[in-house]
Amino acid sequence: MNTLNSTAFLRTSREFPEEIKALTQEINKSYLEIANAVNGRTIGLFPTTKPAVTGNNYYLNSTKRQQSVRQTWTFTSSTLTITHGLNLSNITYVPLIYGTFMDSSTNIFYPLPYVDVSSANNGVSVKLTSTQIIITAGSGSPPNVSTGLITIEWLQQP
């Protein structure tokens, strides 16, 4: 099978040679494999104060790699419009916008954006404008948005 990530996993065992030159070559190869496998993983940082590199790589223009960055914002029912401070003119794509919110009347968590399959008017949407993140509850009977978090991942200009 021809997959992109065939070397992203670390070997669990390795036989090291006793001869010093062969050992040096094997250790160098091992270090490179470890570095590539670790660097190919998503970095689990979700800061609320400034963007963090994700470890996710996008290849939108053939073989030119673009690494994404992400930031998380928290909100309450009184802060459903969040000034994000991002410069959208430096952003080429926003591949991921996701989060969760809690309904204070039921203590249930919902995904953000939320889609009610029984009525589109009961959904909760997310929109990213040039200056703000806007969370909007539908006009029907959507869950009562009390608290939550929203994460945005974007690609900078190459």
Structure description:
With 158 residues, the chain is mainly beta. The protein has 2 domains: 14-43, no CATH class; 52-156. Helices cover 13% and strands 42% of the residues. The chain has 1 helix and 8 strands; from the N terminus they run H-E-E-E-E-E-E-E-E. The chain has one helix spanning 20-39, and strands at residues 52-61, 64-76, 81-83, 91-103, 108-112, 124-128, 132-137, 145-156. The two termini are 31 Å apart.
Break the fold down into its secondary structure elements and pairings.
Blueprint: H1 20-39, E1 52-61, E2 64-76, E3 81-83, E4 91-103, E5 108-112, E6 124-128, E7 132-137, E8 145-156
Antiparallel strand pairs: 1-2, 2-8, 3-7, 4-5, 4-8, 6-7
Uncertain ranges: none
Number of helices: 1
Round the Cα radius of gyration to an integer and report it: 22 Å
Shape: elongated
Estimate nothing, just give the exact number of structural domains: 2
Strand content: 35-45%
Cα end-to-end separation: 31 Å
Sheet of most strands: 5 strands, antiparallel
Backbone structural class:
mainly beta
- Give the strand line-up of the largest sheet: 1-2-8-4-5
Name the average pLDDT: 87
Could you give the order of the helices and strands? HEEEEEEEE
Q: What is the count of β-strands?
A: 8
